[in-house]
Design a protein that fits this description.
Blueprint lengths: L8 H5 L1 H34 L3 H35 L3 H25 L1 H8 L5 H15 L1 H17 L4 H20 L5 H29 L3 H9 L1 H4 L4 H18 L1 H13 L6 H36 L3 H28 L1 H9 L6 H16 L1 H16 L3 H26 L1 H23 L1 H8 L2 H26 L1
Helix pairs in contact: 2-8, 2-14, 3-6, 3-7, 3-9, 3-12, 3-13, 3-14, 4-5, 4-6, 4-7, 4-10, 5-6, 6-9, 7-9, 8-9, 12-19, 13-19, 13-20, 14-15, 14-17, 14-18, 15-17, 15-18, 15-22, 16-17, 17-20, 18-20, 19-20
């Protein structure tokens, strides 16, 4: 029988080293995945450019990808790990949660496949009837990625509980490799056929991700717990009734609280469908660049830190939890500020390097740059908010996080409707940034203003300001040098 109360001796002896090791493991895996992802986007931009078929694929992949980000990047984990830690019948508890959620997702996937045009219309109201007719089969295919990625997320949460991060960090590379292979196979085919190949590439990538997680679960010795949980589920279901009721009560506020950025991105696509053709693609390509430092630093840090913070808070050792959070905060702050400055100043050069070739024109790159710069302004508050939200979730303040998300989303909708007419796609990106600042401010208040001041106001702030000014000056000189070449 597995004893989940034991923690690796090395982790006890060198906790900070273990924390940064986990962060770097996640970051490196995400980096490899994102490099392949950018290569995939380069091939996609070259093959499809920014036109109706690229918009169709991004719409088709948008909803399952939205759920992937909500589940895989923290919301499910941040509710499941505290509940799983406290559970007496862990195997039965995890079996029950898995079956309930997977059943709901499979039913939803079946409905989307039976009514694909309705689902497509809901995601892209601005599409005309003919475009919806073309897009709906691709939406139906892509949606089957959702049950696959939920299963992956569920298994990855168990691995994170055991402080194993590598499998999940590197698994997304399999999705990108699958899509790259699909693009290579579809060379010299029509745009409709390319989107068809890409859609099935998404499904094959999901199957590969699930396979490697199953292998990791077996190697970590967790398969006995899972099998035992399913075996005794019927007999012991009543014993976990109170635990599952509490989990369900906390889960939906947590999903809402953790998914504001993803919902905003989804609304970006919805509103962009009313703009000129290519607007959805501009937002997608710019957001892909923006998501690199966000995932590489903020999400990687949050995933690595959360299991440990949750344990300390459960054991009523908030001082140690705050020490971990403080170290992670400044580590993340330096990286995000540097990324924001670099992304804003060198935005045009980045989009030229990554996308400006084939069907993706200079005009497309110019608009994508403007959208990217609006996104990059909000990188720091959005990234730091993810870190501070850990504290709320570890203390089971999911409802408070949900209220913050609601105010943040409301501000996004207001500013998106304000800026969409004069600024187009850039206005939607700016609205996302402003909502990020609103959410970050409210999260600081929930975390505790005095506690935040203790973390924020120290010598690191001086180093950050000086370093930021120097970096800006160096990058401006570098940009000027590139323009002379």
């Amino acid at each position: 029988m597995l004893n989940f109360r034991k923690i690796d001796k090395k982790i006890k002896k060198k906790p900070y080293i273990a924390m940064f090791k986990a962060i770097f493991t996640n970051s490196f895996g995400i980096l490899v995945s994102r490099i392949l992802g950018f290569f995939r986007d380069v091939l996609t931009a070259s093959a499809l450019g920014a036109n109706i078929y690229s918009d169709i694929f991004f719409i088709a992949f948008k909803l399952p990808n939205l759920f992937r980000r909500i589940f895989a990047e923290g919301a499910f984990t941040q509710v499941f790990i505290p509940a799983f830690t406290r559970s007496i019948h862990k195997g039965v508890f995890l079996a029950h949660i898995f079956l309930v959620f997977l059943s709901i997702i499979i039913i939803l996937s079946i409905i989307v496949n039976l009514l694909p045009q309705l689902a497509t219309k809901a995601m892209a109201v601005g599409f005309d009837a003919q475009t919806i007719e073309i897009a709906s089969p691709y939406v139906a295919i892509n949606f089957w990625y959702l049950p696959l990625i939920f299963a992956v997320t569920f298994l990855s949460t168990l691995l994170q509980y055991k402080h194993h991060f590598a499998t999940t960090a590197f698994s997304t590379t399999l999705l990108n490799l699958s899509l790259i292979f699909a693009l290579l196979l579809s060379q010299d085919k029509s745009e409709a056929q390319i989107v068809y190949y890409l859609s099935w590439g998404v499904i094959i990538g999901g199957i590969l991700q699930l396979a490697v997680h199953i292998i990791a679960i077996r190697k970590m010795g967790l398969s006995k717990l899972i099998i035992g949980g399913f075996k005794h589920l019927i007999l012991k279901a009543k014993k976990i009734k109170k635990e599952t009721k509490k989990f369900n009560k906390q889960f939906f506020p947590a999903i809402w609280g953790n998914s504001t950025a993803q919902v905003s991105a989804f609304l970006d696509t919805f509103l962009a469908s009313f703009l000129i053709t290519g607007s959805i693609s501009y937002l997608y390509y710019a957001n892909r660049i923006f998501q690199l430092p966000l995932a590489l630093f903020a999400i990687a840090t949050s995933i690595a830190l959360f299991p440990r913070v949750a344990r300390y808070i459960k054991n009523k050792d908030e001082e140690k939890a705050l020490n971990y959070l403080s170290k992670a905060f400044w580590f993340l702050m330096y990286l995000l500020v540097a990324s924001s400055i670099g992304g804003y100043i060198l935005g045009r050069e980045i989009t030229w390097l990554l996308f400006e070739r084939g069907a993706f024109t200079q005009a497309d790159a110019q608009v994508t740059t403007q959208v990217l710069q609006m996104y990059m302004i909000g990188l720091v508050p959005l990234g730091l908010q993810k870190l501070l939200l850990l504290w709320l979730y570890a203390k089971e303040m999911q409802l408070r996080a949900a209220k913050i998300a609601t105010f943040s989303l409301a501000s996004y909708i207001f500013f998106a409707l304000t800026f969409i007419s004069p600024l187009g796609a850039s206005g939607l990106a700016l609205a996302s940034t402003i909502s990020g600042f609103v959410g970050f401010s409210l999260t600081i208040k929930a975390f505790g203003v005095s506690s935040f001041k203790k973390i924020f106001f120290n010598k690191n702030l001086f180093y950050l300001i000086v370093g930021g000014i120097l970096l800006s000056f160096i990058l401006l000189l570098f940009k000027k040098f590139l323009q002379t070449i």
